[in-house]
Specification:
By secondary structure, the protein is of the alpha+beta class. The chain is built from 5 helices and 5 strands. The chain has helices at 14-22, 27-34, 41-47, 53-65, 87-111, and strands at residues 4-6, 9-11, 39-40, 69-74, 80-85. It starts with a strand and ends with a helix.
Length: 112
């Protein structure tokens, strides 16, 4: 497979591209929670244990930059920001579901 250049970075295979955009500890859990609801920042923060404010903010920015989520800011006091999935984000849910199922299977194997 030929090299692929995206945003100035060379990728050697499609899995590398996907894992950079969706990999890590927090991006998939964020997308998972947005699959059926539009959520505010505080709702995401409350629903994802162990994530820091700084990490949640950076992961949301990356997901927005890569086209997986929409960010809508309301001009009210206090400020209100809502996040929802884009079509691209909705398309990732099937993959996340499969990875989640595989992970649950691995966890079950380890318990036995």
């Amino acid at each position: 497979m030929p090299d692929f250049i995206y945003k100035g970075k060379v990728y050697y295979n499609p899995v590398q591209l996907v894992m950079e955009q969706l990999g890590g500890v927090w991006k998939m859990p964020i997308l998972w929670r947005l699959q059926s609801n539009t959520l505010r920042y505080s709702e995401l923060r409350r629903d994802i244990p162990h994530i820091s404010d700084k990490m949640l903010t950076s992961q949301l920015r990356e997901l927005e930059e890569n086209g997986y989520i929409n960010r809508k800011v309301y001009a009210v006091v206090p400020p209100k920001t809502e996040y929802s999935l884009t079509e691209k984000g909705k398309g990732s849910i099937e993959l996340i579901t499969r990875i989640r199922e595989y992970g649950l299977g691995l966890m079950k194997e380890v318990e036995e």
